[in-house]
Design a protein that fits this description.
about 140 residues, elongated, about 70% helix
């Protein structure tokens, strides 16, 4: 019961704050001068707003750049699809490479055969006696 008796006493001692101009300015703070960065930023923003309206040069350039990027993207996608679905040049080149490799192997085999025939003809004409010095006996390393 003692706590109930003290509650009205506390409520009666509270008074509402007075709204004087000095107290409100202390709470809210006075309006400060904008900083250099905010002034420069707002001037850039205002310049951009005035130049980015339809009919101005900067707006037209931006629109042209955006359209160019969009069109080049479409061209890129179209060429990619074309290469993926309709490009048969790769198969032609691979076939030509395989044919060239076959020709190359055939020519190398022909060259090996010709070199072997040349060595055989040279061996057939080989005369060990012609390799000895005059009036000397034939050295053993020149014999077959």
């Amino acid at each position: 019961l003692s706590s109930q008796g003290s509650a009205p006493q506390l409520l009666s001692s509270c008074r509402p704050l007075e709204n004087t101009p000095i107290e409100m300015s202390q709470i809210e703070g006075s309006a400060a001068k904008p900083s250099l960065f905010s002034r420069v930023g707002s001037s850039i923003l205002n310049t951009a707003r005035s130049n980015l309206r339809p009919g101005t040069g900067l707006y037209s350039l931006g629109f042209g750049v955006a359209a160019g990027v969009a069109i080049s993207g479409l061209v890129y996608v179209g060429r990619t699809v074309s290469v993926m679905l309709f490009d048969h040049e790769y198969y032609k080149l691979q076939s030509r490479k395989r044919y060239f490799e076959k020709q190359l192997i055939f020519t190398r085999e022909q060259e090996e055969t010709q070199a072997a025939h040349y060595l055989a003809s040279m061996a057939a004409e080989y005369d060990p006696a012609a390799t000895r010095m005059p009036f000397k006996s034939l050295d053993a390393k020149y014999r077959f």
